[in-house]
Specification:
This protein is an alpha/beta fold. Helix content is 40%, strand content 16%. α1 packs across α4.
């Protein structure tokens, strides 16, 4: 199975070059794709200078749109799965490669599961994740341990067929509910993450507003996406 890594990136010029270099060194055969989501700091130029394929949004459309357009680009070129890696440097490249090579079936969503307290996540981030975990698990009908981690392996065609129209951070939670309701396996794999000092952190996730938007999105999905009946 061909391996692909999809990096949605917005204003990521400080961290992207090292991430791409590390992924390329650890998995020289893996394909790399950056979706530059309307950055104004040269993010896309950094990827192109390293001979990495880039999909460019001329305005910021949100992480959900970056992921969907990246999935479509890879699916059109024959890839079956893709590992999504955040551009901010929090995900370890070795964990991304581990997910890409994981023995889980190609039709499963493989989730990187963090131990946020062990790895030093801020208290607000831990609360936000617990909040999202409760809601996503409730609507998905199964317990999911980490619903906000962006390090995942997706089955491309099945994911695109789920039809989520979420544009921002709600996309990743929305996909889990849709996948669970459609019977797509969700497999959890422990990973570690890196939380730099507060002054060096680059995050566009609002720990108050974005979880609230996620819940609204999940309510919509729960009302419009029926569960696939289980075979007897």
């Amino acid at each position: 199975m061909q391996r692909a890594y999809l990096i949605p990136a917005y204003q990521a010029s400080r961290s992207l070059k090292q991430l791409l270099a590390d992924l390329r060194a650890l998995d020289p055969e893996g394909a790399l794709l950056v979706v530059d989501d309307g950055s104004t700091d040269g993010t896309g130029d950094i990827a192109r200078a390293s001979s990495i394929d880039v999909v460019t949004h001329h305005e910021n459309l949100g992480k959900g749109m970056a992921l969907k357009n990246g999935f479509a680009w890879l699916a059109e070129r024959g890839f079956e799965t893709a590992v999504t890696v955040d551009a901010d440097g929090q995900h370890r490249p070795e964990d991304a490669v581990m997910l890409a090579k994981h023995s889980a079936p190609a039709n499963a969503i493989v989730l990187g599961i963090r131990d946020m307290r062990r790895d030093g996540a801020p208290g607000a981030s831990r609360f936000s994740n617990r909040f999202s975990n409760w809601w996503v698990s409730r609507f998905a009908g199964q317990a999911i341990s980490d619903t906000q981690c962006g390090l995942r392996r997706y089955p491309l065609h099945a994911t695109l067929a789920l039809g989520s129209d979420a544009r921002g951070y709600g996309f990743e939670c929305d996909m889990l509910v849709r996948a669970a309701r459609r019977g797509i396996p969700i497999i959890e794999v422990p990973i570690r993450v890196i939380y730099p000092p507060k002054a060096e952190r680059v995050s566009h996730f609002n720990v108050v507003a974005d979880p609230a938007r996620i819940v609204v999105r999940l309510l919509h999905t729960a009302l419009t996406v029926k569960r696939t009946a289980k075979k007897p």
